[in-house]
Amino acid sequence: MPTSEETALSTPAAQYVPGHASAGGIAARARGLTKAYGSGETTVLALDSVDVDIARGRFTAVMGPSGSGKSTLMHCLAGLDNVSAGQVWLGDTEITGLREKELTRLRRDRIGFMFQSFNLIPTLNALENITLPMDIAGKKPDEKWLDQVIDTLGLRDRLKHRPSQLSGGQQQRVACARALASRPELIFADEPTGNLDSRAGLEVLGFLREAVDQLGQTVVMVTHDPGAAAHSDLVLFLADGRIVDEMERPTAEAVLERMKRFDSLRGPSDGDGSAASADVNLDKD
Ligand SMILES: Nc1ncnc2c1ncn2[C@@H]1O[C@H](COP(=O)(O)OP(=O)(O)OP(=O)(O)O)[C@@H](O)[C@H]1O
């Protein structure tokens, strides 16, 4: 059963909304966001009436036990998955209810994506990969911005290389540049360091941080790694499809301690990586 505090976090907006947007405005917003998979007795409630504001110009991390709904939240906020109930906005545009064609255009024009697998086209060189989404959209890149992105990511001397000629870290930097190239309103990164060694992972996190601090971008990153989350401005913690806590200016140690409290709620027979019990203790500092 949810605690009273958890219930308070998932009830309608005006009271308390995790991620509470700053003066910079709101890049994405969800109210009552609910996502169920399957039907009847096999229904899985992946998101349970989530209210969240993603602040513009900030780096937000999403953490939580396996199966808590992190990827589902990202997919619903990005219009990659339809919702069962509730509303989602990208900026001022409500995306719930948009037709697939409109969603495709919106994703292409306004959102950048980074995934664990870099999703680069092997036959294209780095520069062609970076500009591919814009080429498909028939848009000319803003050359000054593109130069800035390429230099910030240290890719200037790698532009003619194909993905197979680049290290994992360099490939992820290309994926990062591709996400940034069209100067999207929002970048979603799903475990962007998951396939990298720790040095390359740190580098990519540093670049995402720079994208926020120096280029004014907005980043939402799903991660399992407390060290990665420590690069963000704000961590949202999910459990059983609900946002149950948040942490401003996180440190790896503090995030790890918070995550341990999810683990300690699992029974001995519950070691299969499924979500923690809903009875998460919410003693916010
Ligand atoms: N396509 C699907 N069909 C059925 N159930 C799904 C589907 N996608 C996700 N789920 C279920 O929804 C819940 C949330 O999944 P989700 O992938 O969002 O969690 P997560 O926190 O990202 O997990 P992980 O950290 O393991 O990637 C889980 O119980 C999962 O089994």
TrEMBL record:
Residues 263-285 are annotated as: Disordered. InterPro entries: AAA+_ATPase, ABC_transporter-like_ATP-bd, ABC_transpr_LolD-like, MacB-like_ATP-bd, P-loop_NTPase. It comes from the Bacteria. The keyword Zinc does not apply. Residues 28-265 form the ABC transporter domain. Gene3D superfamilies: P-loop containing nucleotide triphosphate hydrolases. GO terms for molecular function: ATP binding. Keywords: ATP-binding, Nucleotide-binding, Transport. This is ABC transport system ATP-binding protein. It comes from Streptomyces pseudovenezuelae.
